Automatic annotation (TrEMBL):
Glycoprotein among keywords: yes
Protein name: Chondroitin sulfate proteoglycan 4
Intervals holding CSPG repeats: 22-116, 259-350, 370-468, 486-577
Species whose genome carries this gene: Rangifer tarandus platyrhynchus
Family matches, as InterPro entries: CSPG_rpt, FRAS1_ECM
């Protein structure tokens, strides 16, 4: 207490809280269990109690999805001990309650409980009929620590075709493995090869360097090249490992003369007077040539159609490539006449060619009715990952037919990935059909159809389907695929600052140009700080930062501060990091242009007494007279003061007096 100039001593008031004896005290700390193992649930993880020591009954209202609750009791105890739906305090105190994980690739699980009082914890005690009934709902969470316990499995395994005494890139379309462990990136799989009887694996960028081990990411990036020498048919051993588990594979190499072959040629079914796209789903070829891009496989029209025209990007150039087929750029346009048509092509790959005829069937318009697409939503997929087509994303119905009769025909394959059908088989891991050209609505409903994204640095993809239910059809249903980048896209902007000044860094300087990262609260980390300045937070001036957040940038707290030196250019390198998403951006460099300020006075560095002969001419150099300016601009001049009446100074020509001169000119010309 204080009164004018008088002050009392300090007093401490102690406040004691008296807890309600019937208040529920809950312990629910969650469980941590290893994949496929069990965990004893003790009082320290899950327990309910009151101060008056009531006992509680626990009723399971929602069982775990990826495991089960068990009670450990003696063999003569009655009741089912697995997948229990109720237990008591004594089961927990007696350390009899266990959660057992089902060994699936799941990272979390949960179960719901309702706990209620069973009466006072005293045998034979009188029970007050007015005693309040207590109950509570509990959500118990389980975190699963995944194990690397699965071997890599083969996804693509086929004969590798090579030109005799030639070379061919080895890619994921020839050899591909998958690690079933959900937290493992397939790109990190390592291949170790043993002796190759009929060739070598070398670096595509430097064929003189042999490869004895390479990653699956190298196959994706096209870095592995096979060069043939020796026998026409041979196999060699490959070991595939995720760093813990190994599996072996035999890659068969078949060598022959160069060829180009037709893989499929389904022809076209078109409505009279309409357009139909020609894609790799209807016409595709394969070759053993070392083809690096889709533009190298060319189709030339040698006999045009009689009742229509073949257009590429809305024009008729007379040729197109596999790239045009994949992009859906090739269209057959029917002119309304005839019931069928045909056109002939020559396929050319380097020095070989093949003749191909494409048949066109003209259909009537009477069958294009009544099939309705209820759902056709954009697929969202992580770069390099698969996504499942489901009923919520794709569903077709017909008013007279059951949905199971709907069939989807792939008319245009994805460009930056592929479709995959996975069919489970009893007692095995199942089978996969890569690039299915047809699937049904039940395939979609059961989750068997996947889109697998493969090409890096792509933002979108698409594929086109025809949908048929009986005789009814919907043509050219476009399914869009939105690709979430593996790395955070970061776009930066250069800026200018005055010498010795500072510049607030607005959010326009650090943009993430992708809708998937809008509003992402990431942090920016300086990989290489400025050499002639530093980054600071305005709340903490002169404290050099090595990282800052987007929120700080949005609140205009982050600035670049120049150190006042005479350097005209500075830079710093940053990358964006999101701990929430576990993603980073590629490093980006911001260049800073410094506007020079003339704030330094010249300093005389040489001013010797000049000794001359009477009526003579004497050269003046920087050894006799020199000045430097800390601001260092070119050709800094200063006036000549107080010339003696009996002395003249000129440059080069004795007829040109000097009122000012520069140090560079003293170095490069004569002053006399």
């Amino acid at each position: 207490m204080v009164a004018k100039h008088i002050e009392s001593k300090d007093y401490t008031f102690r406040i004691n809280f008296k807890a309600e004896r019937r208040h529920i005290i809950l312990t629910n700390r969650g469980l941590l269990v290893k994949e496929g193992e069990g965990k004893l649930i003790t009082k320290s993880e899950l327990f309910v109690q009151t101060l008056d020591k009531r006992t509680f009954q626990y009723t399971v209202t929602k069982s775990p999805q990826h495991g089960k609750l068990k009670l450990i009791r003696s063999s003569d105890s009655p009741g089912n001990q697995d997948n229990i739906t109720a237990f008591t305090d004594q089961d927990i105190l007696g350390e009899q309650l266990i959660y057992e994980h089902d060994d699936s690739e799941t990272q979390s699980d949960e179960f719901l409980l309702v706990v209620s009082t069973a009466g006072p914890d005293q045998e034979g005690a009188f029970r007050d009929l007015d005693t309040e009934h207590l109950s509570a709902e509990i959500k118990a969470t389980i975190s699963v620590e995944l194990k690397n316990d699965k071997k890599p499995v083969c996804v693509v395994d086929k004969v590798f075709q090579v030109v005799r005494n030639g070379q061919h890139l080895l890619t994921l379309s020839d050899l591909c493995y998958h690690d079933p462990d959900s937290d493992f990136d397939d790109g990190q799989l390592l291949y170790i090869r043993w002796g190759i009887p009929n060739g070598d694996l070398v670096q595509a960028s430097d064929p003189t360097q042999k490869l004895y081990r390479f990653g699956q990411e190298d196959l994706w990036e096209g870095r592995v090249l096979f060069r043939h020498r020796g026998a026409d048919l041979a196999r060699f051993v490959l070991f595939v490992t995720d760093g813990v588990h190994y599996t072996s594979s035999l890659l068969e190499v078949s060598v022959s003369d160069p060829y180009v072959r037709v893989v499929n040629n389904t022809g076209l079914l078109i409505q009279r007077g309409k357009d139909s796209s020609l894609t790799t789903a209807k016409l595709s070829v394969t070759t053993n040539h070392d083809v690096r891009t889709d533009h190298e496989v060319q189709f030339h029209i040698v006999q045009p159609p009689n009742h229509g025209s073949v257009l590429v990007n809305s024009s008729a150039p007379g040729s197109f490539s596999v790239h045009d087929l994949k992009q859906g750029h090739v269209i057959y346009r029917h002119d309304g006449s005839g019931s069928f048509d045909m056109f002939n092509l020559i396929v050319r790959v380097k020095d070989i060619h093949l003749y191909v005829g494409v048949y066109v069937q003209v259909d009537s318009e009477s069958h294009q009715h009544h099939t309705q697409i209820l759902h056709s939503k954009t697929l969202v997929v992580e770069e390099g990952k698969p996504v499942k087509l489901s009923r919520e994303r794709l569903q077709a119905v017909h008013e007279d037919l059951v949905p199971s009769e709907a069939v989807f025909i792939v008319r245009a394959l994805p460009v930056h990935g592929y479709l995959r059908r996975s069919l489970p088989e009893e007692g095995s891991v199942g089978t996969e059909d890569t690039f299915p050209l047809m699937f049904t609505q039940p395939d979609v409903d059961d989750g068997y159809i996947h889109y697998v994204q493969t090409m890096p640095d792509q933002q979108q993809d698409r594929f086109i389907l025809d949908v048929r239910s009986g005789f009814q059809a919907v043509s050219r249903l476009e399914i869009l695929v939105d690709v979430v980048p593996k790395q955070i896209p970061l776009a930066v902007q250069n800026f200018t600052v005055q010498e010795g000044g500072s510049k607030a860094l607005p959010e326009d300087y650090f943009r993430t140009p992708s809708k998937h990262f809008e509003g992402l609260d990431c942090e920016f980390v300086l990989l290489k700080p400025p050499k002639h300045g530093y980054i600071e937070n305005s709340h903490f001036p002169r404290v050099k930062l090595m990282k800052f957040t987007r929120k700080q940038v949005e609140n205009e707290l982050i600035s670049y501060v120049h150190d006042g030196s005479e350097e005209l250019l500075d830079s710093f390198t940053i990358f964006a990091n999101s701990s929430e998403l576990g993603k980073q951006s590629l490093p980006q460099t911001l260049f800073v242009t410094i506007e020079s300020v003339n704030d330094e006075s010249p300093v005389i560095t040489a001013n010797k007494i000049l000794q001359v002969w009477v009526n003579s001419v004497t050269e003046i150099t920087c050894d006799e007279l020199c000045a430097v300016d800390g601001d260092s601009p070119a050709h800094r001049t200063w006036p000549t003061w107080c010339l003696h009446p009996a002395m003249d100074i000129w440059l080069s020509s004795p007829f040109l007096d000097v009122a000012s001169r520069t140090s560079p000119r003293l170095r490069s010309t004569r002053a006399s």
